[in-house]
Amino acid sequence: MTGVASHHDDTCADLRDLLRGRLVAAALTPFHRDRTVAREAVAGYAEALRGGGCAAIAVGAHTGRGAHLDAGELRWLVREFGSASSLPIVAGVGPGPDRSVSDLLPLAAGLRDAGAAALLVAPVRGASRAEIVRLHERLGSEVGLPLLAFVLYDRASGCQYDADTVAELLTLPWVCGVKLALLDDAMGCQDILDAARTAAPDALLLTGEDRMYGPSLMWGAEASLLGLAAALPDWSVAVLEAWTRNDLPAFVAASARADALARLTFLAPMEAYVQRMAWVAAWQGILPDAVAFDPFGPYAQSPPPGERDRLISALPTLSRDHDRDHETSA
Predict the structure, then answer these.
(1) Which of 56, 82, 126, 144 is the most buried (most CB within 10 A)?
(2) What's the pTM value of the predicted model, to 2 decimals?
(3) Is residue 3 very low, low, confident or very high in pLDDT (cuts 50, 70, 90)?
(4) CA neighbor of 286 nearest in space, from 226, 225, 208, 230
(5) Is the peptide bond before 233 cis (omega within 30 degrees of 0)?
């Protein structure tokens, strides 16, 4: 038992050391129009995320529509993203339309065997706190990978964790951190960050607050796992690096630019952010137009006329500002 405890302590510590102060990109999954994974596009996309400065890639998370993918597709994506990028992979684990809670342990074990370095554990709609804690206990003890608890806003998850739930999860041996995505709940974000730091001072606090990115770092987050980084990871890296090196002018500029991008992409209908980020990825040239497609969001059948053009038309000016500031800081 002592050897097991030492192993999980070392594994969790290694992950925290690797990701603290760094960015994890929440990757898109490229899809064909028939909802099959566009496997031919994954390697180049993974290489581009690495080139954008990511320290790791989250595969099959909310942005990657992991709830809609079967176990075989998720295992393949973990292997391919890992092989193509040579980066650690954080694999999303959660229920879906065709996946129950009882399926999660074998799914997680398969993702471990495919090469995942950690698991991002999604909320289970309607679960009690006891059920949430038990799921994390079993995933940790039976699968043996570090876990990141995922606090996802209630409209998307149906089970947004409160501060006390997060504090209890962080007392579990395999739960090495928490990823927050509360969307527009600034008070909830602050309260959970405070509770997490009190409960587990060494825990890894990752912000996934695309609409509160800069502020969430000021409130105590120390790393990021962002859907916003699915297309322009270097913009998100610039915010985090400027904050970490205490470069206030660079932080203000980079944060304002990331916020401008988030205001274009993370807006109602919120689930359309995946399609919007895919459009940005295609504009940037890291995904082919034909597979920059979200078949599971509200724009799958017909996006509103002109929305894509309005989004894309705003990007060149923001991009020029980013390039100029990057050259100045270099």
Answers:
(1) 56
(2) 0.94
(3) very low
(4) 230
(5) no
